[in-house]
Fold this sequence. Notes:
- The protein has helices at 17-24, 33-50, 52-58, 62-65, 78-96, 105-125, 148-158, 165-176, 178-194, 201-214, 223-232, 240-274, 288-300, 306-330, 338-346, 357-378, 436-443, 448-457, 470-486, 494-518, 524-535, 539-551, 558-577, 583-591, 598-612, and strands at residues 131-133, 136-138, 390-394, 406-409, 419-423.
- By secondary structure, it is mainly α.
- The strands form 2 sheets. It has a 3-stranded mixed sheet, with helices on one face.
Amino acid sequence: MQPRARKYPAKALFLGLAGTVLAACSPPEVVSDPQLVAHVEQMGSNEAHRRPEAAETMGLPETLFGGKYSALLDDRSGAAVERNRINRLDQLATLERIDPATLGANAKRTRDIAVWMLGAVTAVDAHGYGYAELGRAGPYVITFADGAYTDLSKFMTLHAPVRSRADANDWLARLDGMDEAMRDERRRFETDIAAGAAPPAAVLRRALAKAQQLAPTNPREHPLVTYFIESLAQIPDIPVEEIATLQKKATDLVGGEIKLEYGRLIELLEKTLKGAADEPGVWRLKNGAAYYADALRLHTTTDLSPKQLHEAGMKLVTDLTAEIDPLLAELGLAEGSVGSRLRTLASDPAYLLPETPEGRIALLATLNEKIDWAQKQSARVLPAPPKAKVDVREAAPLTQDSASSAFYKAAALDGSRPAIFNVNLRSTLDFPTWSLPTLAFHEAVPGHHMQAGLARERTQATLSYFISVPAFSEGWATYAEDLAAELGAYKDDRIGRLGYLQAMIQRAARMVADTGIHADKWTRPQAIAYLQDTIGISAAEAELEVDRMTIWPGLACSYMAGRETIRRMRTGAERELKAAFDLKAFHEAILLPGPRPLPVLEADIAEWVAQRRPAPPVE
């Protein structure tokens, strides 16, 4: 029997003008599941060939890539970007001509995900500045967190292993292409700047400082060269003379065109900074309001307006503030704003680990203990956990000045690297002990590791590996914090519950600040002050938060957009099914098919509820 056709709410669909026009020109085609699978696999192969660095980072098997890629870098040229833009429009038009009624349930879901994401990304692409990927976009080609000048240093030292003579030659081939990658990207950046899409001053200052930090002064001591030398020393079958030759090649490349490209970038950043605007919002760019609406759609996978998201965030902040206030009063912190009191609590020595190697070890051990607790407790409400374990580690120093306080990396597909929960340990003083439980639950179990680990272990289309759906992944991880609280994480830990509530109010306040910056024309100082007063972070932390929102408009809204959708779906399913509701089965219905846009997820859950709804009594 043919599965029923699923209908998506109109407010959740956005297919992009170009894709809509192309689809309207052609009648629907009848396509069988195998034909759809073949088309989607071709899309995945195209995406992989466009992004060999991502393929390397995720450990994509060469069979899925279609050949060897260990010596390749991404093509960052303007011509490649334009080819990709046209290719996406063609792919969208082809998928829209496929009649979903001819497809099985899994194939239909695959088509719906691809159509939704391509529609959203082509809408952002159409603005003609910045960059747009399948699930992630920004209005500026180069920032303090984006760009070959910083990305390749991290990629080449963290994700491009040198374990053999062949690896060494491939690594040098990539290094030989780094100057071209930087040059291509700088030229696109210059084009955008000339068209009026220059980053604001605060972003440029951070980018300039990062470029100056990474620019080779003594090439022999540059992180790229020292990583290569240290890696060569671990390879037993390379003669000393050959090692010296390889080291010289690396040093010459870094001290040659790569050094010159850093100099050109620094000169451009200094020149652009002189006339840079102070306002952080994209509203000041060409068609900035429309750009922000499209970025919100891509990141939240909803059609909610900035005003709707802003108001939702304000209500969440009000509700969470009302929960936090009495808990602080119980601790003797009754005066001042909630933010100022949380900041006082965060600096209380009673809740801080020493800034020593032993303190760092203790912090990581605490996170591991919370993960172990969550593994045991969540077994009754979640699917069987991923086979891969998660390692809790300090994040690499190269990531510390632009990354969040913690972040998760799924295990490599080829088994070469475990799943890693990275902790950005600039200082143990950034992590009061009462903040650690909810951090572990978000990044590991029942959060990112549970969701992404299960997705890694299921058979899926190659294209899926290159699609990011932050509203799903971050929405689940934020909901996972609620789930841990529901499972009893804070039953005997009231101050730990404060950490959970502070994390929640931080996500809500980000949604307010993001929409405030990009739609309501908040100034940078205004946004910084709001975050400090509302969630209790330091001035430096608030400045980085605001600058991250500046370069990734709409991304901060994805956490609460996803969390609130999951909570709403659960409430609706409980109301509909009553005693027939099974929480574990509900979570399996969310997680097992893998990441997908919220409209596709909602359609899945609506069908899941319909299949389990008790039959009406026979009269």
